Amino acid sequence: MSEPPFSSQTPPATTPPTVPPQSPSDPRPPNDLLVGRVTRGGSGPCFGLETDDGKQYALYSAESLSLKVGETIRVRTAPLHLKINCGPGEHLSAVTVSRVG
Q1: 4-30 burial, b if ≥16 CB within 10 A, otherwise e?
Q2: Tens-place pLDDT, residues 83-94
Q3: Cα–Cα–Cα angle for 66, 64, 83, nearest 5°?
Q4: Which residues on neighbouring strands pair with residue 14, listed in sequence order?
Q5: pLDDT value of residue 18
Q6: 20 inside domain
Q7: Is residue 67 situated within a structural domain?
Q8: What is the CA radius of gyration of the chain?
Q9: 51 in a domain, yes or no?
Q10: CA distances from 74 to 14, 30, 37, 89, 101 (A)
Q11: Nearby residues of 66 by Cβ (< 8 Å), 6 or more positions away
């Protein structure tokens, strides 16, 4: 006769941790994805973005696009290797930009 699919044995007892974990146990969104409101728009190549937590970004995009102040966008970013000043905030390269909503 074969064993039943589920065992009736009691699982081993576990002890609660004595210290908190060193790293988060929940998955986090990728660090290269930002969602926020456009604070400096126009036809580029520089744009301003503010996330919901109030962090400011100065984005450079090689794409041909036009963004309006106040619209919400999703941006996949990469380090900015060009020596260009796109305004106040953390300077990043906008790899892809898409409108939200």
Answers
A1: eeeeeeeeeeeeeeeeeeeeeeeeeee
A2: 999 999 999 999
A3: 100
A4: none
A5: 77
A6: no
A7: yes
A8: 23
A9: yes
A10: 43, 12, 9, 17, 10
A11: 41, 42, 43, 44
Q: Does the structure show a pLDDT above 60 at 29?
A: no
Counted domains in the chain? 1
Q: What is the pLDDT of residue 1?
A: 56
What pLDDT score does 24 carry? 60
Assign 14 a pLDDT band (cuts: 50, 70, 90): confident
Q: Which residues constitute the domain of residue 60?
A: 33-99
CA dist 58 and 89 (Å) reads: 5
DSSP E strand boundaries for the chain? 33-40, 46-51, 56-60, 72-79, 90-99
Q: Is residue 24 part of a domain?
A: no
